[in-house]
Amino acid sequence: MERGKMAEAESLETAAEHERILREIESTDTACIGPTLRSVYDGEEHGRFMEKLETRIRNHDREIEKMCNFHYQGFVDSITELLKVRGEAQKLKNQVTDTNRKLQHEGKELVIAMEELKQCRLQQRNISATVDKLMLCLPVLEMYSKLRDQMKTKRHYPALKTLEHLEHTYLPQVSHYRFCKVMVDNIPKLREEIKDVSMSDLKDFLESIRKHSDKIGETAMKQAQQQRNLDNIVLQQPRVGSKRKSKKDAYTIFDTEIESTSPKSEQDSGILDVEDEEDDEEVPGAQDLVDFSPVYRCLHIYSVLGARETFENYYRKQRRKQARLVLQPPSNMHETLDGYRKYFNQIVGFFVVEDHILHTTQGLVNRAYIDELWEMALSKTIAALRTHSSYCSDPNLVLDLKNLIVLFADTLQVYGFPVNQLFDMLLEIRDQYSETLLKKWAGIFRNILDSDNYSPIPVTSEEIYKKVVGQFPFQDMELEKQPFPKKFPFSEFVPKVYNQIKEFIYACLKFSEDLHLSSTEVDDMIRKSTNLLLTRTLSNSLQNVIKRKNIGLTELVQIIINTTHLEKSCKYLEEFITNITNVLPETVHTTKLYGTTTFKDARHAAEEEIYTNLNQKIDQFLQLADYDWMTGDLGSKASDYLVDLIAFLRSTFAVFTHLPGKVAQTACMSACKHLATSLMQLLLEAEVRQLTLGALQQFNLDVRECEQFARSGPVPGFQEDTLQLAFIDLRQLLDLFIQWDWSTYLADYGQPNCKYLRVNPVTALTLLEKMKDTSRKNNMFAQFRKNERDKQKLIDTVAKQLRGLISSHHS
């Protein structure tokens, strides 16, 4: 039962589905019926569907048949009417054909005329279109032609502007033409060509600038020199109001056009020709020598092309390289002033160009870049000057170099560069200049001292007297009253040395000019340098003369007199320095001249040399002494060598009349002491092993001759018997032995008022031993005589007592 119900339900569903498919077939386009039929064939009720489909077809056929039967009469009527219309239509066709034939025949000429008119209108439209297109293309071609002409004539900046107009204004209007595409393709190449050519011009400019930097610098330094000369002239006139030349005045106005179509110059010469200018004409401005248009053009070209930073970097890099080349001094720069001048000219030329670029372009170089270059230049320049100036031994060259450095510094200061370090370095060169001056004046002093005759200057007329007094500050009323001929007390080297000291001061003053130093600093510099001249150079020269081997006593005496007068002239040197520096000696921290000390030291050295020389002469005479220490004869006169020695001393001390009294007295006392000491050494020397009483008698005569010389007062100023005290040791020793007064000596020894106070027991024992040995040798048989035996015993006794005195003294 249930299975029957299920089968019935499935049959109903299948029937409904077939019905749906049939409706879909009836209403669906034939092209889309495939899927519908597929669903039928996919099912299992294909036969039943076919049956339903046949049934539906039969139904439709019956409906069609009914409809045709209903409309049949109308269809027949329509066919009858259509047959009637066909006849009329044939007539109409024949009429139309006839009419068309006639119309074609009649309108044939009109068609030809119309065809011709059509052709003319077409040509007219083409011509008009062509003219319009040509009107668009002609400006492009004209601009391109103009661009080529500008490239050909090297007007690169206008060419670049033309290229910009061509690219952005004209070419977009005709961009669909092939020749325009060629132009568009060439634009980057043209830009690169303009960049390359303008860069080539810039390189030529940089190379030209490098070669002509010295000329530019020379011109700038001439301008600075002219301005300084004008300033000096103004300073010498009543000053109403003057100012230092400003940096703006240093520039000469440029008429540089940086227009897009007309740069300043199309010829990239870099340096303008000024060689034919007359020397007496005004010196041209440093920038007038330079054509900067290549820089301006290249800068604008790269700016337009968007490569300004590349151009700035390249320019700065190349200029840095050129700066290093400029700052490299030649190895022989120190040999001539021209070497320094060319070096400075190149540096000034370099920075004049850079300063002008700084102020005439916007950002190509900036102040930081300039300051960096200047710091490098300053350090390298100062190092080079320190190195090369140290080789200079000519003070004139050093002075010229100083003036050149000052001009160099003033020139760059006008352009706003700080130059304090250069002036600081000049203070270092000042010390070197002082050293070279000292070396030069050492030679001058040496020549003066070597060529001097060391004799008082003879004067035969008033004119010569005034000339000498004009050269050296000397006043002596007694000498002025004396009639001609007369003599100055000093020799020629005094006024010569005095004037050379003044010349040295002038030379020091020359170096201090234009160094922006205060009067006090200049005064201090001059005084310190003059002190070095006096205490080192002049002092050494005098010492060398004094220590010379062949120097005579007369020369030494004259040197003492000369240094005395030079010492007195020191106050006039002080006044001379005060007058030229306007700094009073009483000013705080003012350095004092050490001339007085120098001349005192030289005089003391000369005095010592006189004492030494006198002693050497005495020694030379004493070498002629030829005593017979074994003689038994009693002499009657002094030895010949001693007589000659005394005569020499008398003549020598007679020359000392012009010396200060103390010097002459000291020399005389020193000579007498040395003579007494030498005689004592002669008597006691080890080579004299034996001597006789007769030899002592002869020696006593010589000592008496010396005492007579001392009593005669060879040099005035000694108190009574003062000079004789030099021989007191010899006198008491000889009296002791000749008078054989041993009892008194031994009894009074050690007492203040002892008769033989100056006799040392060691000396007495030494001399006694020599006499004892002589007595034993010459009197081998004297022991058999009572007197001789007693004398020998006495000598032994005295010797023993002397040894006791010596022992007690040591203990």
From TrEMBL:
Supply the InterPro entries for this chain: EXOC6/Sec15, EXOC6/Sec15_C, EXOC6/Sec15_C_dom1, EXOC6_Sec15_N, EXOC6PINT-1/Sec15/Tip20_C_dom2
Domain (Exocyst complex subunit EXOC6/Sec15 C-terminal): residue spans on this chain: 421-770
Q: Which UniProt key words apply to this protein?
A: Coiled coil, Exocytosis, Transport
A Pfam family (short name) is Sec15_C
Write out the coiled-coil annotation as residue ranges. Answer: 82-109
In this chain the Exocyst complex component EXOC6/Sec15 N-terminal domain maps to: 52-221
**Where in this protein does the record put region Disordered?**
258-280
This molecule's function is given as: Component of the exocyst complex involved in the docking of exocytic vesicles with fusion sites on the plasma membrane.
What's this protein's family per the entry?
Belongs to the SEC15 family.
Q: List the protein's name.
A: Exocyst complex component
Organism of origin: Equus przewalskii (Przewalski's horse)
Q: Which gene underlies this protein?
A: EXOC6B
